[in-house]
Amino acid sequence: MPSVSNPNGPSKNRLAARASKARKERRKKSETPKDKVAKADTTRGARKGLLPTSGPRAKLSAKKQRKVEKRAAHALKRKMEAEGEAEMKGELRTN
């Protein structure tokens, strides 16, 4: 039986290159300072100590923050009501 690798899979060279690249990226990521602002955030106005003004890491406005808190409170209330109903169903009635 000849020792031939799977022709459909990546070659050993490709696998080694992929692993090497992953190691290199991991090393780079760990060496970068934690307080460094991402380039994408810098384009949105972020600086050291300042959050971007738009995008996923932007600071929420006071109005948006109130809405988020209201939604969270409502969800918690619904959850509590659902749990309360579940407990009531489990009780035994004695006549």
UniProtKB/TrEMBL annotation:
Basic and acidic residues biased stretches: 28-44, 78-95
Top-level lineage group: Eukaryota
Biased composition (Basic residues): 60-77
Biased composition (Polar residues): 1-11
Region (Disordered): 1-95
Protein name: Uncharacterized protein
The organism of origin for this protein: Fusarium coffeatum
